[in-house]
Amino acid sequence: MDILIEQLQYKDADKLFKFELENRNFFEKMVPSRGDDYYDFEIFKKRHQALLDEQAQGLSYFYLIKNISGEILGRMNLVDIDKSGYSGHVGYRVGESYTGKGIAYTALKLLIETVSEQGIKQLLAKTTNNNIASQKVLEKNGFEHIRTDAEEIDGQNLKFVYYMWTN
């Protein structure tokens, strides 16, 4: 499947909200919930605008993974960009009906190419220890396992696997 990554835009709010709603249960099996407020459209639009503001400041970049007809298949984020250290933290999620098709792998590869051109030399990532598919995507894209730690998030004790990619 041919895909592309496209920077998040204001016009994406409606389709992105629908994508998040459709995949909520699937995502919450692998990562902590974003909370019920996230799925209130008025609150979602405010958060969407905050992401766009953060992106405009160059602090983070938010991408949508789309097919050639413009349908949202997933999303990728590059956050906590340290321009002096040329690094950032990457995260991604692919909709349930698009898993197992190489979309996350290809999208991450495209992101690496894109941010490398912008001078990013190091990417950090983490995933829950039960998200084996995500670990494979990271490793196939040249990320190296650096550690595994437990963290408490919203009262849940979760185990995370940390990775690093260096150009």
Short recap of the structure:
This protein is an alpha+beta fold and 167 residues long.
Structure description:
The chain has helices at residues 13-28, 41-56, 103-117, 132-140; strands spanning 3-7, 61-67, 72-82, 87-94, 122-128, 144-153, 156-166. The chain has a single domain, classed as 3-Layer(aba) Sandwich (Aminopeptidase), CATH 3.40.630.30. The model has no long low-confidence stretch (mean pLDDT 91). It is globular, with a radius of gyration of 15 Å. It has 167 residues and is α+β, with helices and mostly antiparallel strands. The chain contains four helices and seven strands.
As a percent range, the share of helical residues equals 25-40%
> Low-confidence spans: pLDDT under 50, at least 5 residues?
none
**Radius of gyration using CA atoms only:** 15 Å
* Distance N to C terminus: 27 Å
CATH class membership: Alpha Beta
Major sheet: 7 strands, mixed
For the record, the CATH architecture stands as 3-Layer(aba) Sandwich
Main sheet: which strands, in order across?
A: 1-2-3-4-5-7-6
Mean pLDDT across all residues, rounded?
A: 91
Question: What is the strand and helix layout of this fold?
Answer:
Layout: E1 3-7, H1 13-28, H2 41-56, E2 61-67, E3 72-82, E4 87-94, H3 103-117, E5 122-128, H4 132-140, E6 144-153, E7 156-166
Parallel strand pairs: 4-5
Antiparallel strand pairs: 1-2, 2-3, 3-4, 5-7, 6-7
